[in-house]
Known about the structure:
101 residues; alpha+beta; 3 strands
Amino acid sequence: MGRIIIKLKGWYFIWSTVVDAPITYKMTIDEITDYIRFQNGEEGVRLLPERLKRVEEKGTSSYVYKSVEAVIRCNRSGKNESNLSLENFISIYIDETMEEF
């Protein structure tokens, strides 16, 4: 299963390329480090700085996608796996202003 890190508006997410959606809630750097440690052990944490370097440069740890916008463009994060616009994605997953989508 492909899992990449994305960063949007200062928040980190683990993104699944299988479901084309985030599989975590928004996280701080400490929270994502703890998540990686829990999921991937110390080896995951050892590799984390390299992944985060790509995240800080382009918004995603992916080697394939050139930006976080490119990752989100083909998402299935909405109701019934619908595609969300970047603005709706931010509203739901970061600002949490929409009660139902």
